[in-house]
Amino acid sequence: MALIDMRDIEKDYSLGRTTIRALRNVSLSVGAGEFTAIVGPSGCGKTTLLNLLGCIDRPTSGSISFDGFPTASLGDDAEAQLRLAKIGFIFQSFNLVPVLTIAENIEVPLMLARKPKRERRVRVEELMELVGLTSYARHKPDELSGGQRQRVAIARALANEPRLVIADEPTANLDGATGESVLEAMKELNEKNGITFLFSTHDPRVMRYARRIVRLRDGEIEGEEVS
Amino acid sequence: MLLKMAVLSMFKHPKRTILIVLAVALSVFVMEFVSGWIEGMRDRMNRQIVEESAHVLVERTERVDSLDPLETKNYIADPGSIAAQLSTDARVRHVERVTPFGALVLAGSRSLPMKIVGVEKDSGFFAQVPRGRLEGSFPPSGPGIAISRKALDLLGASFSSRLIVLVEDAYGMPSYRELPVTCVFATDATDFDTSTAFVDAGTTSEILGTADSAELWLRLGDPEDAEAVRDFALAFLSGHDCIAKTWKELQGGMLVMIRYMDLFMLVINVFVLVVAATVITNAILMNVFEKQKEYGTLRAIGMKRSEQAFLVLAEGATQGLAGAVLGAALALPVVLFLKANGLPIGEASRMLGGGDVMYFGTNPVSTLQNIGFGTLIAVAGSLYAAVFGTRASVVDALKNV
Lengths: 227, 401
Description:
The complex is a heterodimer. By secondary structure, chain A is α/β, with parallel strands linked by helices.
């Protein structure tokens, strides 16, 4: 069974009196343990697709199921709970909470999941070690480089041991070498821990890390490649 | 951690935080100032009711409707026996014969019409006079008059001067006595000082030519027993053609004023709430706008709308508490200064039941209430921002739309 399955998805946005169709008749299945890239030019609907897959947006029509469970029936809080427990997010501009330390940023999802303090501390230490930032625990995000911040974002995304990690252009704000090291880290986590990664990019250097590439153009799936 | 995020977020926008804290501080300052003022008035009124005058007053029935209540024909004929009977009630702590009468006080070529009050030598009332005593002793014992410094100045006399007290006696004839000034006092009320003087009960009988008394003043162990003691008194007073009134009946106007003061305080608080909450709502709304992306991120990683609202409200409450404590800390020295030295607002103060100077009062409960109210203002101001912030979808928040 696919981890996530979307059927006949259409997504419209209203801009004043104009309606823009961001996705047209998209059907996509993502299996557990995949390392998949959604690629395409700017404005082709990559972020919209990831938002729908990550359950932070709802389609205009069509159905999405996560782990075989239709997400359309979920209420606001249940949807938040699904994201908290099963989906991790990595954003293009890191989106760390600036007033919290690195360790606290990683701890936020654990705290939202109401994990006991001792358990949270142990998990934060594990994750910091995993992304190689143990010595930066008490630093604030603005004291770190872009690559280090994205590693913190990865650690935060993994905090509650999600089934799926969604990364929207995770390397767009990083230089080439740093971007590659972030992707290396993601790939390693995918291979070692079996975490499903879905990321968007329009950078050909990044695409080569993906085992499956889904090409989007003008809101439609243009094609797929599996290596 | 949510609370920590809320607290630390305050320092991210220091100017806005200062604006909110100052708005709350100013509101609490105003509330603390007004409540100090009202507390002072309330203290004064309570003092007047509980310390200065009778808890239960007994007087002749005719005197109530008399054109001249100070006329001796309206005095209680046998005050001693009534006083003795009233003293048998365990709730009555003290019964005193009080005899106010009209007189013209003369010193050389100057004169002053005054109300002279004949009091017993162990008088437990008129506490403001011994409190404001400048020379001599109060109440006067033997021949002598206790009079204010202001009245003496008007008469061109001083301590030990001899004043002539001219009255109409019990037989309707003019009568006078020359009395030395044995006590000089100064209260904070010009009206009282220039219109009231005191002599002892013996001197009163001598001048008026009667041993009768105008009023019997009762002090009770607990002023709240006044109704019961009045009923006890009324049971045997009908044969004496006298009536009894409680302090609540006597000071009805003042009690209504105290109630209106509470209403006035509430109106001021609501006004302050509306003004401050508007400023705070705008400032916190700006914060929420700027942090939409942060909130969007937190919602994306699993934060519920209610938790986001808590975050905004916690930030508002923290700023509110800081502002409220600051406002109270700034207001307290001012209120304490005005409690000790008073605020000379003259006629306005007299109209509000005070003396020439309005002394403020302090009440820890009302200070805590004001701090709570100040915090509440900020929470109320944050409420709209919190609701507004949570209305945005995660996607819109992430786009910072």
